[in-house]
């Protein structure tokens, strides 16, 4: 909390801030700080430049499929932050009271670019502290890190692990390690139950969420690894070019003004009609399904809310899905 | 009209569907739920009539060092049929207040300059809130 207040004062003083890292923390900060800096400027207060740098091609790329990740980066830019993607940070130095960050585009390693800023926030992820494993003789997961525990969160007799540091066996989705708030709550409770004699495996899927400025928010559940195959359904309608308003009350229901034609026939277009990242409203609202062997293992609810229970049920059922239009119907994506 | 798109790498498929495309009932049948899921969100009272101690409406009071004391007091209150609800639960509530006083860091009032009263008030408020949110 102290860090938060320190940062708030820094931004309000008009200092320039650079954020290194394209994940949840970095992206949320980029949007929040850029927004605040813009508001400060509007009110005649000191306002600094906010820049976010990342190795990946777009924001939240570990979760969002590439096209959506890049589209999100454009939205973060609209919030007022400069977003520099696809770069490798190679040096940081202090020069005349300012920080100089140098980076390269790995495809042009001879060319070095620079960014000068007053403060740098490093948000490049965390590693679980498994020091205890050595002295206690506990197993560590070499792939995901963390203490290796079974489906009941047990490491060994009388030892359970919950939260970020637990690599556990999810009976539906396989071995995982999850660094989210709701998982900490769910796994903490489960470990507690099991410590007192229950023998329950982890099966209730925890969820997570992120809000990137006032216009983008999403909730997610299950395995949402962007490396998986994904199928997404976005709401299409005859609405004017209007970004989402501040709060959810501002969402307008999409009204289809065009007479109904054979709208049930899906036409598969060729690859020349790629989803364009400059189409501001293309991915305004929708649902992304993450698949393993044609079964849904994860769902991202993109700018639609209060539908996690449906997603949880679909993941729990693990049915083979062939028709995603039918699956999407369960989410009512055109409504708030 | 709706369409779908497959980007170059073919991995991430995208569909844009209108509300008409999605209007008819889905043909996907979800499986019947086998059992009562204790993890799902329930209100204050569970289907079997017992109190849901995990209800967010209880503000976490049913957990922690005073959790059991709270449960006794709240159960008494919940079952009370007196005109002034909970009036016969004085013993349980004063045990609760005593417990709160032992852990000021956890159960202290947010308003630091207040008198000792607010601790009781916040607990009672929580209970009152919990009951008014019960549907």
TrEMBL record, chain A:
Catalytic activity: A + NADH + H(+) = AH2 + NAD(+)
Keywords, sorted A to Z: Apoptosis, FAD, Flavoprotein, Mitochondrion, NAD, Oxidoreductase, Transit peptide
Record-level Gene Ontology MF annotations: FAD binding; NAD(P)H oxidase H2O2-forming activity; protein dimerization activity
Keyword flag Mitochondrion: yes
SMART domains, alphabetized: AIF_C
Basic and acidic residues composition-biased segments: 242-256, 266-277
Descriptive protein name: Apoptosis-inducing factor
UniProtKB/TrEMBL annotation, chain B:
Methyltransferase in keyword set: no
Domain of life, per lineage: Eukaryota
Keywords: Disulfide bond, Mitochondrion, Oxidoreductase, Protein transport, Redox-active center, Translocation, Transport
GO cellular component: mitochondrial intermembrane space
Any one GO BP annotation for this protein: protein import into mitochondrial intermembrane space
Keyword presence, Oxidoreductase: yes
Main localization (coarse): mitochondrion
InterPro entries referenced in this protein's UniProt entry, alphabetically: CHCHD4
GO molecular function: protein-disulfide reductase activity
Location relative to the cell: Mitochondrion
UniProt protein name: Mitochondrial intermembrane space import and assembly protein 40
């Amino acid at each position: 909390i102290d860090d938060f207040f320190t940062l708030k004062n820094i931004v309000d003083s008009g200092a320039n801030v650079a954020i290194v890292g394209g994940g949840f923390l970095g992206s949320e900060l980029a949007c929040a700080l850029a927004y605040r800096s813009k508001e400060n400027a509007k009110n005649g207060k000191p306002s600094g430049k906010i820049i976010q740098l990342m190795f990946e091609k777009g924001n939240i790329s570990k979760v969002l499929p590439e096209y959506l990740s890049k589209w999100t980066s454009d939205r973060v830019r609209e919030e007022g932050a400069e977003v520099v993607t696809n770069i490798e940070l190679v040096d940081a130095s202090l020069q005349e009271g300012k920080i100089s960050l140098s980076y390269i585009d790995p495809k042009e390693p001879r060319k070095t670019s620079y960014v000068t800023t007053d403060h740098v926030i490093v948000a490049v992820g965390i590693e679980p502290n498994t020091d205890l494993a050595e002295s206690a003789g506990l197993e560590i997961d070499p792939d995901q890190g963390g203490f290796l525990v079974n489906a009941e969160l047990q490491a060994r007799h009388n030892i359970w692990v919950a939260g970020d540091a637990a690599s556990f066996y999810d009976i539906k989705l396989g071995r995982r390690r999850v660094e989210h708030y709701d998982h900490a709550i769910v796994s903490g409770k489960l470990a507690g139950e099991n410590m007192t004699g229950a023998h329950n495996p982890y099966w209730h899927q925890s969820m997570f969420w992120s809000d990137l400025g006032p216009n983008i928010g999403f909730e997610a559940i299950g395995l949402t690894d962007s490396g998986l195959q994904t199928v997404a359904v976005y709401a299409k309608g005859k609405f004017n070019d209007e970004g989402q308003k501040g709060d959810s009350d501002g969402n307008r229901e999409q009204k289809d003004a065009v007479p109904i034609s054979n709208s049930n026939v899906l036409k598969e277009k060729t690859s020349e009609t790629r989803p364009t990242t400059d189409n501001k409203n293309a991915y305004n609202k929708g649902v992304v399904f993450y698949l393993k062997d044609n079964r849904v293992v994860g769902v991202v609810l993109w700018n639609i809310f209060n539908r996690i229970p449906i997603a949880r049920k679909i993941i729990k059922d693990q049915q083979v899905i062939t028709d995603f239009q039918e699956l999407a119907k369960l989410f009512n994506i055109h409504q708030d | 009209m709706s369409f779908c798109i497959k980007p170059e790498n073919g991995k991430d498929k995208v569909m844009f569907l209108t509300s008409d495309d999605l209007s008819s009932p889905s043909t996907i049948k979800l499986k019947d739920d086998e059992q009562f899921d204790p993890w799902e969100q329930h209100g204050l009272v569970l289907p079997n009539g017992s109190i849901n101690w995990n209800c967010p409406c209880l503000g976490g009071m049913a957990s922690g060092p005073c959790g059991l004391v709270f449960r006794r007091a709240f159960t008494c209150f919940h079952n009370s049929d007196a005109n002034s609800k909970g009036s016969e639960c004085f013993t349980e509530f004063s045990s609760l207040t005593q417990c709160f006083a032992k852990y000021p860091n956890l159960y202290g009032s947010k308003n630091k300059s207040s008198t000792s009263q607010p601790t009781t008030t916040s607990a009672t408020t929580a209970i009152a809130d919990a009951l008014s949110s019960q549907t």
